[in-house]
Amino acid sequence: MKRSTIQDAMFPGCPVRNIMARLCDKWALLVIYILDRSGKENMRFMELKQQMPDISQRMLTMTLRTLEEDGYISRTIFSEVPPRVEYALTERTKSLKPILDLLLQWSVDHMDDIMRDRKKATPIND
Questions:
Q1: Could you report how far apart the first and last alpha carbons of the chain are, in Å?
Q2: Phi, psi of 101 (to 5 degrees)
Q3: Handedness of CA 55, 73, 71, 103 (dihedral sign)
Q4: What is the spatial distance between Cα 77 and Cα 13, in angstroms, rounded to a whole number?
């Protein structure tokens, strides 16, 4: 699904395709996690980038735009020279916190077993 897709054309009422596909991409949950765990109300772009050294600047920009479009984060632009931009979690995303905390704990609890199963899996020859 393209990042710019507003709604899945074939399944417009499907929350998995319309909400979870964008929220659960490779970077979105990590950005939310970092904003939540930073201990700050807001973070600047480079602060986020420093916490995610393996993401490109372009991909971080795209991820932040997608999260902002869907109302998970807010972006505040300050009229300064140079311009200052800060990102923060919205109330919508703060309501997700208990769910995300459970998902994080589940991941920690089961990571070793999942990694062991991955190693045991036979590669599929396409």
A1: 23
A2: -60, -40
A3: positive
A4: 34
Tens digit of each residue's pLDDT (9 = 90 or more) over 62-80: 999 999 999 999 999 999 9
Assign 3-class secondary structure to 63-90: HHHHHHHCCCEEEEEECCCCCEEEEEEC
| Residues 6 or more apart whose Cβ sits within 8 Å of residue 91 | none
Digit-coded pLDDT (tens) for 76-113: 999 999 889 999 999 999 999 999 999 999 999 999 99
| Structure token pair of residue 87 | 């990102």
Output the pTM of the full model. Answer: 0.81
The CA distance from 62 to 57, in Å, is: 9
Q: What angle do the packed helices 97-120 and 28-37 form, to 10 degrees?
A: 130
